[in-house]
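Contributing new records

If you add data, match the layout below exactly. Sequence lines come first and carry their own label; structure lines follow with theirs. Keep one chain per record. Anything else will be rejected by the validation script.
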Amino acid sequence: MKLTGIIAYPITPFSFSGECIDFPVLGRCLEQLINAGSDAIAPLGSTGESAYLSQKEWEAVAAYTVELVANRVPVVVGISEITTSQAVNKAKYAESIGADAVMVIPVSYWKLTDQEIFDYYQEISNVISIPIMVYNNPATGGVDISPELLVKMFYEIDNVKMVKESTGDIQRMHKLFELSNGELPFFNGSNTLALEALCAGASGWCTAAPNLLDQQPKNLYESVARGDLSAAQTIFYQQLPMLRFIVSGNLPRAIKAGLKLRGIDAGGPRKPLRGSQPEEDALLQSLMKVG
């Protein structure tokens, strides 16, 4: 599988009480992301509040997404676990239901050594045959994977096929390109770096933005791909205020608030996360009018 373009993150919608998942609303959100031109769907990331779901809920969302998407675009299931055994179990489950790939971020209480990180991914790779995207986001996972280690795993672990780099450091993307001679596909995970990252050779952009911006993220990717940097710059700066807003607090709150303004009530984030406040809703509404 050669994956490029926009990998879109859906939210996990909850009932008003937050006690159960609203699957009909999830279906609407998934269809909207596909219609926005997304090249892949990545459920159960931070936007999907994966850390706040039970194992049963996680499995239900993964299975529902794979079934509804029905091979129209690849499904890349997110996995973020503190133990290797639980990450292995989720990876096996994702493959068993027909996921096309898994996006894996290690989560750690104790600082992990490079060898421990390597072994974490190696053990996952040993039990599945689908591609692994290594997700580096020390701000949420507490683990920072160096470009050198990312490239080493790409060459030495069979199913490690791509990287999502979310530190917000463009130099890391340059380093990934240089160390792998351009062979390692890497994806931008920092919304406000989208233009710079795509111009630096990123294979695509992993983002929740299509939930609120529809085809604008895909338009940016396509403009860069065809070398029309003038158009790309215009498209990017049209999106930038919204991109800044959705990452300024937490993604689930921002995306769910925006969806509600669009007539899709996905509930609020699961506690202890709080829902959006009136001043945030007012700012978001103004940004959506501009968009």
